[in-house]
């Protein structure tokens, strides 16, 4: 093999391992609109599965049901703060649809997403929690014979391209970290032995696929620095980014997105869902009830 050809192959290999960042797109500052001052703010809370959201709805006082376009929204008070909750169903489109309905009808000050995810970071085990500082689609971009180039979606509201990594709101992130410090989680028996669940801040990636493949995990880790993978978070983040609504995605690990993922999900999903919901309740407790 000639030296020139080896150098070319070396460059090709390097470029396929590069972590994608949004250097080519300027990220615009976000200016959040304020709620009308006469109204106490309301926080939207979404989850993909009925059980993930029911465990929050059971804790509501003054609960009220409202059906909109066939979707059920339950509002009430959680830790004395106004919230509205709904389960979206699985996948990006369902999540985007429900987030949009919630935003249109309830005008939330902020939107939280709670639920389970597959762990892509090998340090994460069932029950651990990832606070998503950023979310990204892992299935949106340009596929060529050589590579997959991740791209943000075009925002039809302003004609700009969204960043690949959608940032969570700084204030919510700060509250989540504070809440994490106060949260008491129960020990859990995993294949790594009995562990106290860990809470980390990280990258959560989203796609319309349940990942049960170690090779895909390696790719998601190398290309996107992903900590966890799920099927709704970035879709809600995109709606919030485009509508300038602060958001935060919280996910607890139910499986390691590997060959054992389907079985592990069955075993750990309730514990993981509970851990994620507990952190959300703690965040709600810390929210300012004024505008
Ligand atoms: N949600 C929970 N586990 C998941 C996985 N392995 N892939 C995608 N979504 C998930």
Question: What is the helix fraction of residues, given as a range?
Answer: 25-40%
Give the overall shape, derived from the CA principal axes.
globular
Strand count: 14
Any idea what the CATH superfamily of the domain at 115-286 is called? Nucleoside phosphorylase domain
Main sheet, how many strands, which sense, barrel? 5 strands, mixed, barrel
Instruction: Indicate the CATH topology of the domain at 115-286.
Output: Rossmann fold
Any key phrases for this structure?
5-stranded mixed barrel, binds adenine, single chain, two-stranded antiparallel ribbon, globular, 291 residues, alpha/beta, Rossmann fold
Describe this entry's structure for a reader.
The chain is an alpha/beta fold and 291 residues long. It has a domain at 115-286: Rossmann fold, CATH 3.40.50.1580. The chain has 7 helices and 14 strands. The protein has helices at residues 3-17, 50-57, 92-106, 170-182, 214-224, 233-243, 261-286; strands at residues 43-47, 61-68, 71-78, 81-87, 110-119, 129-137, 141-143, 148-150, 166-167, 188-190, 193-195, 199-206, 228-230, 247-255. It has a 5-stranded mixed β-barrel with strand order 5-13-12-6-14, surrounded by 4 helices. It has a two-stranded antiparallel sheet with strand order 7-8. The chain has a two-stranded antiparallel sheet with strand order 10-11. Helix 2 (50-57) runs parallel beside helix 7 (261-286) and helix 3 packs parallel to helix 6 (233-243). The protein is globular and about 70 Å long. Residues 11-15 have low confidence and may be disordered. Residues 116-118, 210-212, 229-231, 254-255, 257, 261, 265 line the site of adenine. The site of adenine has 14 residues, from strand 5, strand 13, strand 14 and helix 7.
């Amino acid at each position: 093999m000639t030296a020139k050809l080896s150098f070319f192959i070396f460059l090709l290999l390097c470029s396929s391992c590069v972590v994608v960042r949004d250097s080519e797109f300027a990220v615009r500052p976000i200016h959040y609109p304020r709620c009308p001052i006469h109204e106490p703010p309301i926080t939207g809370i979404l989850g993909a599965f009925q059980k993930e959201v029911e465990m929050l709805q059971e804790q509501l006082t003054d609960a009220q049901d409202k059906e909109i376009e066939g979707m059920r929204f339950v509002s009430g008070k959680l830790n004395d703060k106004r919230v509205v909750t709904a389960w979206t169903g699985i996948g990006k489109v369902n999540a985007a649809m429900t987030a949009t309905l919630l935003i249109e009808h309830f005008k939330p000050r902020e939107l939280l997403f709670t639920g389970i995810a597959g762990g892509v970071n090998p340090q994460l085990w069932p029950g651990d929690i990832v606070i998503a500082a950023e979310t990204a689609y892992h299935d949106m971009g340009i596929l060529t014979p050589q590579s997959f180039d991740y791209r943000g979606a075009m925002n039809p509201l302003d004609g700009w391209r969204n960043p690949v990594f959608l940032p969570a709101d700084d204030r919510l992130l700060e509250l989540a970290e504070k809440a994490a410090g106060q949260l008491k989680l129960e020990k859990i028996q995993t294949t790594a032995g009995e562990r106290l669940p860990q809470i980390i801040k990280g990258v959560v990636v989203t796609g319309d696929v349940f990942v049960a493949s170690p090779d895909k995990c390696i790719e998601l880790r190398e290309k996107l620095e992903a900590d966890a993978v799920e099927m709704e978070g970035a879709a809600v983040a995109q709606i919030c980014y485009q509508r300038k609504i602060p958001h935060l995605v919280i996910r607890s690990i139910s499986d390691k997105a590997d060959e054992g993922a389907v079985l592990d999900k069955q075993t750990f999903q309730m514990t993981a869902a509970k851990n994620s919901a507990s952190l959300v309740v703690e965040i709600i407790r810390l929210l300012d009830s004024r505008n």
